[in-house]
Specification:
Length: 132
Amino acid sequence: MADKSYFYGLGRRKEATATARLYAGKGDIKINDKPAAEFLNNNKTLLAEITDPLALVSKQNDFDITILVKGGGVSGQVDAAKLAISKALASINDDLKGALSKAGYLNRDSRMVERKKYGLKGARKREQFSKR
C-alpha cells in the first residue's frame, strides 16, 4: 500500500452522493458517524450490498470504512456508498481494479427520475385523449 493514511472514493446514484474513506483497520463500517447496521436499521440485505465489493476482493477485515452520504433515499445512498467503496478499492492497485470492473462495481448507474413537463400531470402522464 501507499504511504497515504486512507484511500478515497466518491459515488453517486439518483440524488444521493457518498464519499468513502478506507483506513487500515479491522472491518468497522460507519455511515454518517453511526455504525452501518444502525444507520440501515439492521437491514441485512442492504448491509450485504454495501460490503459486496470488499467480499469480491477478500478484504472484509482489512479496512475500517467511514462513509458520508447526503441526499436521496436509503436505496440510492446504499448504491452510492457501494460505488464509493469500489472506487476507493480500485485506487489501491490495478489488480483490484480489474476484478471490480469485471464484476460491474465501477459503473455508475446513470438512471434518474425524469422531470415533470409543463402541461402534463407528471413526466409523461397526460389528459386522456378523446377523438370525439
